[in-house]
Specification:
The chain is mainly alpha-helical. It has helices at 27-39, 56-67, 81-102, 108-115, 124-131, 136-168; strands spanning 19-21, 52-54. It is globular.
Length: 169
């Protein structure tokens, strides 16, 4: 049996439309989306209302990130180090608040190692040096991994929420 046109085998209906989120966006979601919008030259998109409509191009990338990790290039503005490091630098205080308060990383260096596979072999001191940019190769590894982790969580949250809305309709 083959999949019907417009569907993904084993799953939900795939629409190449805007993604509508029926709630105000969280700050981390806005940060990831603004980064994506800047790289897609769509800066005029309003993300501050009671509902958010995410443009088609970005919605497709968010949906794709649910099927293929951000580390495999599913979100175009989170592929190159220059882009992920820029996202980290522009959002470092927000990322720290998000990791501690929303994700629950009370011991951030231990928790980063357990949640992000590419950081498993780092010591606490190496993670600290990477977060604060004290050692170049560690800075790149840690800040890149945190940026990609944020993009992945946001993509899954937003695209998953859209899928749940479709099932409840």
């Amino acid at each position: 049996m083959t999949a019907a046109a417009g569907t993904i085998p084993g799953g939900s209906f795939y629409r190449s439309l805007k993604m509508k989120i029926n709630r105000p966006l969280k700050e981390i979601e806005k940060a990831v989306l603004r980064h994506m919008l800047e790289h897609a030259d769509l800066q005029d998109t309003d993300l501050d209302g009671a509902e958010a409509e995410i443009p088609e191009e970005l919605a497709d990338e968010l949906r794709e990130a649910c099927r293929h990790p951000v580390t495999e290039g599913s979100i175009s503005s989170f592929i190159y180090y220059r882009d992920t490091l820029e996202f980290f630098r522009n959002n470092e205080p927000l990322l720290l608040r998000w990791l501690v308060w929303d994700i629950g990383m009370w011991d951030i260096y231990t928790d980063l190692r357990s949640l992000i596979p590419s950081l498993h072999d780092f010591t606490r001191e190496e993670l600290r040096q990477g977060w604060y940019g004290e050692v170049e190769d560690r800075r790149t590894a840690v800040q890149n991994a945190v940026a990609m982790f944020a993009a992945q969580v946001v993509a899954v949250d937003l695209a998953g929420e859209e899928e749940n809305d479709d099932e409840n309709a």
